[in-house]
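Q: My labmate handed me this sequence with no annotations at all. I'd like to see what the chain might look like in three dimensions before we decide whether it's worth expressing. Could you predict it?
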Amino acid sequence: MKRDCMPITNSSSAQPLPPARPSSRFWVRAAVAVLAVHALLIVATFRDYGISWDQIGGHLYQNAVIRFYASHGTEKYAQEMTAKYYGAFFDLCATAVERITHLRWFEARGLTSALLGWIGTYAILRAGWIAFAPPVGVMAAVFLLLTPVYYGHEFINPKDAPFAAMAMLALYYMIRLAKEYPAPRWTTAIKTGLALGMAMGVRVGGLVLFGPLAVALVLTVIIGWWQIGFRASFKPTLWLALQLGLIFPLAWAVMVAVWPFAWTDPIEAPRIALAEFAKYPWDGNVFYEGKLLKPWDLPWTYVPNLLVRTLPEHILLGLLAGVLSFGLIRRTTLESSRMPVIATCVLLAAFVWPLGVIWSFESNLYDGYRQVLFIVPPLILLAAAGTWGLVHRLKQPAVKRGVIAVFGLALVVVAYDLVSLHPYEYIYFNRSVAGGLPRANRSYDLDYWATAVREATEWVVKNYSAPSGTTVIYSMNDGEPDMVEELIHARPASGIIFRRAVKEEKATLQFLIRRERQTSEPTEGRVLHVVRRQGVPLVDVVETP
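A: Here is what I predict for the chain of 545 residues:
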């Protein structure tokens, strides 16, 4: 039976940005400014970032992938090495950037990761814009840029950061499909499939994104039936089902196309990779709550605890504001709340569903929560929506100004932390819950990817003195010696020759990584230099007798 309510507005003819009314012009300019600032920051700073551990193996995989495609699949090393379980979408993009820019390989990979991160910023802006309101989209993009853990990973993480960006792009197109109902465009469905395929082409775990997609489609159909009745909604529902029939095979085809291992068996290979990631055999130590633990010994609260401690205050306050603003709702209609309801449920599903899958399989997590970094943008968008909703619904001007001032102060503080931590933004811990970086250093991993080794190496090349022609042997207490080798090849004017130690050989210089703080204090030799941020040591350069 047809419901007595207003028909669903067909927004399929909407332009990318709303008409240029005076208020919307401001938000259009603000959106362009945010995206431009992000792009300028990428160009200006991407060379500052170090080489993370995974970049060494990632570069070897990248070269193997290129040989695989150049040989039309006859060179099979990319299908056999340890990294074979990862898709090669990022590696193909990095190769293109490297050949276009002629940058060193690790700088090209960092720039590629950051450029994909820029796409994630665009996606969160557009998702907030169409689902809630233009100010929410702009605010979400600003919140994302001022989230140090996410921002820092954009430049150093060749797996999780690109995956998070593509996942956010897929979520945006899911929300857009719902927005365009009852006449969703085929082009939007194609873009959804491509975005899902690119995410799965980085990590096959992108399959979890079909959970939020199902939420988006089911809610769209249910609300459509409620508004215009079952009979009237039958054709739009069938249309949506046909588009879903396009999205899944398209996403799967894109994933297979950019993943050499999937060429061995497009159905079985993803299942094997998922099983491998579910119980990834990493047996290193995780410094958590002051103890060195194995990944399988970490409690289920590991990710929630770190989220509360590493998300900046404006995100935590925004999520709280969302709850408060919901309580201030007095009266609304399904028509006016349709998109906010659908988008909120999709974003919640994008956060809760992956964690539920991980907990149900008891998968190993480590290195903070970088493997689930993709759950952060949905939280940020919810925080932006909550912030705007609270400010919009407050009636007392003094209270409204007070709330704005609190958020403004929080943004200023985190902006200061971003500058003071650069280029190690990803080690950030907030002040209100974690007590800041010095306190967090006593209980949690900080520079777990040893990216500060670059700064330490460059200091040695520039400042270490010894007679000309001297051979200086160096070593690391942990990590990949190639991280130093890639940077120390530049010889200072003194003519010193640097060579890494072979097995059992005593080193003149040691790069002491402070990942596991309690077990990494200098015990001998003379400390020549310490890489610090906010008073916390990250790497010591030690001269041994």
